[in-house]
């Protein structure tokens, strides 16, 4: 028993639908960090599923398959996400760099988890890691709190592997 629903389908497409719904519904406990991590996790899960050709596609879409193996400089738009969070938090240059590094670490751990085990329960691990990190770091949403949430979620995803 892994603590997650035994009745949940292990099809990653189910999890992807769920995590995209999470992102669109603004889940993350009202936290900027939670919302940013949910959005990033959804992008990563979608990319992994698309790369592994796990998402439901018509036969007409097979010509798209090869495009995912070309790595972009900032595939998950982490620099833009970090810049936005940094501005909202009035972070200085050093703090912005720490925020960017923490987001890259979360993305790396998330992609590793989903790449190694592309299943719905892996997506659920991401959702729970984000939710638990937000819940465990109550208080005013300043730079230190946002960084702590991202680092805690990243560690939880790493430990899920």
* Order of helix and strand elements from N to C terminus: HHHHHH
* Global structural class: mainly alpha
Instruction: Give the domain tally.
Output: 1
> Separation of termini?
16 Å
Count of DSSP H/I helices: 6
Protein name: Hpt domain-containing protein
Describe what this molecule looks like in 3D:
The protein has 161 residues and is mainly α. It has one domain (12-160). The protein contains 6 helices and no strands. It comes from Parasphingorhabdus litoris.
Features of the shown structure:
6 helices; disordered N terminus; single chain; 161 residues; mainly alpha
In short:
This is Hpt domain-containing protein. By secondary structure, this protein is mostly helical.
How is the secondary structure organized here?
Elements (H helix, E strand, L loop, with lengths): L11 H14 L6 H20 L26 H11 L4 H24 L3 H17 L6 H18 L1
Helix pairs in contact: 1-2, 1-5, 2-4, 2-5, 2-6, 3-4, 4-6, 5-6
